[in-house]
Every structure is written in C-alpha cells, then in structure tokens.
Amino acid sequence: MEESIPEKIAQVRQRINAATRRAGRPASAVRLMAVTKTVDDRRILEAAHAGVDILGENYVQEARRKIDLMGRPAEWHHIGHLQTNKVKYAVKLFDMIHAIDRIEVAEELDKRCAQDGRIMKVLIEVNVGGESTKQGIDPENVLPFCRQMSRLDFLSVQGLMTMAPWFDDPEAARPYFSLLRTLRDRIREVHIPRITMTELSMGMSGDFEVAVEEGATIVRIGHAIFGARPPRKEM
Ligand SMILES: *Cc1c(COP(=O)(O)O)cnc(C)c1O
Known about the structure:
The chain has helices spanning 5-23, 41-49, 60-70, 87-93, 103-116, 142-149, 174-190, 208-213, 223-226; strands spanning 31-35, 54-57, 75-78, 96-100, 120-125, 155-161, 195-201, 218-221. By secondary structure, the protein is of the alpha/beta class. It has one domain: TIM Barrel (Alpha-Beta Barrel), CATH 3.20.20.10. The protein is globular. The site of pyridoxal-5'-phosphate has 14 residues, from β8 and α9.
C-alpha cells in the first residue's frame, strides 16, 4: 500500500537528516519545501499540517487561490519562472521568490515592493549546467548581476537557486551543486549591500540528498511527497 503523506514527509526528513550528518551539518540547516503544483488542496493541507517548512508554488494565480483557502500554515515561496505582469500579485502573496533571472523582473518587483512598503526576500536563479532549455543567469554573470540587484532597495538577495541538469544517477549532479555553493561563498566574501548570500535552494525529489551534502539550505520536493504528477501541459 502507498504510504500516507505524513509518512512520506517523515521519510524525506530522515533522508535529509542522514545527509546533513554525513556532511557534518546540523539538521536545522535545511528547510523542507513541499512543491504543490498539480496537487489537490486536501493533500497540500495534509502536507502543511504534517510539518513542512515551506509550500512552493509555480503559478501566481494558483497561489492566490490556495492562500485564500488555506491561509499560511507554512511560508509560501514562489518557485519557477515569474512573469513581469504577475509581479504585482506576487508581492502580496509570497515570503520569498526563488527564481529571479532577469533584471527587468527584479526592477518591477522592487517598484511594487516600494509601493507596498515591504522588503521581498529573493534568490537568483543560476543555470549551472548552461542548458538552453533552462532559465537562469550563467555562472560567470552572477556577480555582475548581484551588483545590479544591489541598487534595488526593496529586495533582499538571500542566496542562489538552481535546477541541476537531470541525470539517472544523482551523484552526477554533485559538481553542479558544488558550483552553486562555491559561487555563493565567493559572492558573500565581496560584501555587496543588500546581498546576503546565505541560502542555497537546490535539490529536488531525485537528487536532494546530494544537494544537502553539498550545502543546500532549502530542498524543493514534489513527487517524493505527493507521488507522480500528471504529464505537464505548460509552465
Ligand atoms: C516541480 C518542481 C520541483 C519539484 O520537483 P520533483 O522532482 O517532483 O521533486 C522543484 N523545483 C521546481 C522549480 C519545480 O518546478
């Protein structure tokens, strides 16, 4: 029989904790995000109440509907591609936005946050594998991008996010996670205003243990908690 959602979450937590031990990191250094795309509301609530730290949503309108319905049993983070015309809603909904990949969207977000009088925590998405199918800033451009972001008073850049290339063997993703950590550490040493650089959002169902060993502070887990998703239409 299929395990329940609380059982699956407990298993994922155990695997995270084991990976932190192997890496000599405290278990509290990693926050668990449940990725809710295509999951029905009842199952999302079950996960929220089973103690995930964060609910991750790809679609702004869906987040609005879900937050109206469920409130905030955990933090809500936006993951995936953010369209400029959705920014004005995103400002009111999310505790953090994970995938800033162009200065235009950051500028719009900064403008809207100024109007709302709030600071938004954001991460910069990095295309660690240089894949043409993926969004994100190329690794060599992340530092100059951070300098551009630094003049946006209402954004606080907390770290970096990536989706590693997909491999059958999660070990193969290790150099990409390690690259993201190295980039973060290097930028942190530069001490740019408003660029905090503590978070690493990396690791999904197939590769999160390796990501945690390499320093992930947020893992984004979908199907290892909720089971297989229906085939996707468009993002
Ligand atoms: C869907 C998604 C995930 C989770 O994927 P799983 O492989 O199901 O764990 C993580 N991050 C982003 C940006 C996603 O879109």
